[in-house]
Amino acid sequence: MSCDIDEHWDGVANYYLTLRLKTGWPMSLIDKVRVRSQALLEPGEIIEYVLPAEGGWRPPSTAVVLGAVLGLVSFPVVIALHRPRVIVATDRAIVILKTDWWVGTKPKSVLQRLPRNAPILIGRGQIFRKVLIGDTKLYVHRRRFKDLDAFGLAAT
Fold this sequence. Notes:
Layout: H1 5-23, H2 29-37, E1 47-55, H3 59-70, H4 75-80, E2 83-90, E3 93-99, E4 107-115, E5 120-122, E6 128-133, E7 136-141, H5 145-155
Antiparallel strand pairs: 1-2, 2-3, 3-4, 5-6, 6-7
């Protein structure tokens, strides 16, 4: 009896997600984003990767420079420049979703839809990595570097 490990894992992951939804168990943030973003995708699309990201004017430097120079006065400026995004890679496309301004796990609309073989440039960084997908610049936090590396390898 042969079993493709990817198909097996997809089945286990879907079972796990369905069980958590039915029982009300706590879900990870990525699972929540995965479930909430499914409604914004085309019917039948299968989500492969979900990456929370940050758009706007250089989020790392905004927080550090303005925070150090202006202190609490800069808080409204940093909040005004906050642009939470979600990168969703499906079996057919790469989709960049605009999320709720306050809660970054609630996708609201589709900003950009690119073909699955679109060029992706991933930069280097200690806290944030710059990701260029199409003409969109996004920043991914270090806690998602492993997911970003896997996403970049799968995209090539």
